Each structure stands twice: as C-alpha cells, then as structure tokens.
Amino acid sequence: MRTREIPDWIPISIAVWALGSMIGGFPPYPLDWVSVLLGGVIGLAVGWAAFALLGFGGGDAKLVAAIGLTVGPAGLLQVLCGSAILGGAIAIGVAAFGGRAFAYGPAIALSLLGLTVLWVIQPF
Question: What is the pLDDT confidence band of residue 124, given thresholds at 50, 70 and 90?
C-alpha cells in the first residue's frame, strides 16, 4: 500500500490458483471452463477499459482480470460493485483528510474478501 503498486506476482498467483483449482476440481470450486474463461475475458475487458479511460492502474487492471478467472462473471460483477462502494468510501475518507489520490487495490481486495466470506457462509 505504501508504494501504491500491485506486483505482477499477485495477479499471476491468483490466476494460476484459479486455473489449478478448476483443473484439479478442488471442492467447492463450482465453475466450469466457460465460466472461468468468460470471467477472465470480462475482467480483462473491464480492467483494460478502466485503465484506458478512467485512470485505473495497470496492476488494478491485471488484478480484476485475475479475479474474473477466480470467481466467474457473476462473482466478478459482485466484486466490482463492492469495489465501487468501498472505493467511494475510501475516496471520501481520503478527501476528508485533504488527500487527492488513493490506491484502488485495497478496495478490490476487500471486496473479494467480502465475497469470499459470503460464499463460505452461504455456498453457491
């Protein structure tokens, strides 16, 4: 968080874990190949568009693509909605203390964590 950068090994590790879980059939991994790839493609498209048009960081864009592989299209939508809400709250907090810019990666990570907790409480 101090450097406001997401190292490449983080989204790569998430993507490898997602694909390995699907290939290995680790329970309770409910996604099939189509959902995994569709989530990754949608995540890549959303991340690239946010990078190109909205000033999203490159690491954030790669993180969104890797998360898309992990949770599929429906889960990605939930993570993105949660990220928008958390990012807005962080932006308000940063602005209240006189800041102008903030890292968006923590909002994405917290949203994924929240979705994971919800899935554990109430499985797919």
Answer: low
